[in-house]
Amino acid sequence: MGRGNPLIRRMNNDAQRTDHAYAGQPQQGQYGQNRYGQPQGDPQQQAPSAASLNQMYNAPAATSADMQRATMDDVVVKTLSMLGLIAVGGAVGWFLGGISALFGIIGFVLAMVVIFKRKTSPALVMAYAVCEGLFLGGISRIFESQFGGIVLMAVVSTLVVFLGMLALYAKAGVRISGKTAKVLAIGMVAYLVFIVGNLIFGAFTGSSMRDFTIFGIPVGIIIGLLAVIMACACLIQDFQQIDGALRAGVPQKESWRLAFGLIVTLVWLYVEILRLLSYFMPRN
Questions:
Q1: Residues 246, 76: contact at Cβ < 8 Å?
Q2: Integer Cα distance of 255 and 240 in angstroms
Q3: Is the pLDDT of residue 41 over 90?
Q4: Is residue 110 within 8 Å of 124, Cβ to Cβ?
Q5: CB–CB of 259/78 below 8 Å?
Q6: Residue 33's beta-bridge partner residues?
Q7: φ, ψ for residue 112, nearest 5 deg
Q8: Phi, psi at 84, each rounded to 5°
Q9: CB–CB of 97/141 below 8 Å?
């Protein structure tokens, strides 16, 4: 899994390498242009006049929009757009039942394509959001049919956790780094191994390892709590890495993938909260 969202981290590193490359780029030719499009050559022949210097001095500073770099507003708008698509997909998936699992697989494939594709594709990102919405709508109805009111509780809980992590990051200055980040990475790999192992176990036995108990406590509760904690930590890391990518000046179009990375964590958090709540609610 790596430390935090690998997609956001990769874009952050790419942007920093680009900035460093620009910083060390030699000037072109004796009478060419520098990387800002300004003429290079004999300073006596090309010295700016007093009027041009005054005009340059009074000109407004270039903004992120002028430089076509991503801003926090771009990320927020794209994130809300994806959440809207998930909501619409969820409304449709609610009536699809078990077939919605197919869209979960399609969404996973699209996520892998978005992560490893060099160029950003807003269409693929939006397609992922729709597929995840269809998937979440289907499994949400399954849980709701067994535990009345669980979906609303899961949605509200996910929102509260997200706002709480955002407050910890923005107000309290909480950061994930060093040994904590290493432990988180190991935990996420271990959780992935557990998921794969549980799928194999279920295929042969028809049951789940989550149903086992330790001192009377279902393994599913322990695993669920750990997964929610890891998802919360990943939200903090996502905030860090989004902030770093914006500071590094990633292109405006990359705001789609920054939003995508955040949505992936939110979807994971919702599913884990939904599953965890099922252990504490009475069946219909």
A1: no
A2: 15
A3: no
A4: yes
A5: yes
A6: 39
A7: -65, -40
A8: -65, -40
A9: yes
| Amino acid residing at 113 | V
> Would you say 224 and 272 are in contact if contact means Cβ atoms under 8 Å apart?
yes
**Cβ neighbours of residue 232 closer than 8 Å, sequence gap 6 or more:** 161, 165, 269
Token digits for 119? 């160029």
| pLDDT confidence band for 117 (50 / 70 / 90) | confident
Give start and end residues of each alpha helix (H) in the chain. 6-23, 43-46, 50-58, 72-93, 100-116, 122-146, 150-170, 178-205, 219-248, 255-277
User: Using only C-alpha atoms, what is the Rg of the chain?
Assistant: 24
- The identity of residue 110, as a single letter, is L
Rounded Cα distance, 12 and 104, in Å: 28
Residue 227 contacts residue 96 (beta carbons within 8 Å)? no
Token duo for residue 153: 């509780």
Nearest one of 107, 108, 73 to 252, comparing CA atoms: 73
Return the pLDDT at 68. Answer: 82
The pTM assigned to this predicted structure is 0.77
In eight-state DSSP terms, residue 62 is P
Instruction: Quickly tell me which residue has 């397609």 as its tokens.
Output: 127
CA 129 to chain centre: 12
pLDDT tens digits, one per residue of 193-202: 999 998 898 8
Task: Please list the residues that pair with 218 across neighbouring strands.
Answer: 213
Residues 6+ apart with CB under 8 A from 89: 103, 129, 130, 131, 132, 133, 134, 135, 136, 137
Question: Does residue 38 contact residue 145 with C-beta atoms inside 8 Å?
Answer: no
Highest mean pLDDT among 28-37, 66-75, 151-160: 151-160
Q: What is the DSSP letter of 35?
A: T
CA count, 13 A, side-chain hemisphere, 31: 4
Provide mean pLDDT across the span 34-59: 52
- Which of 157, 158, 180, 161 lies closest to 169, judged by CA? 161
| Token pair listed for 21 | 């490359």
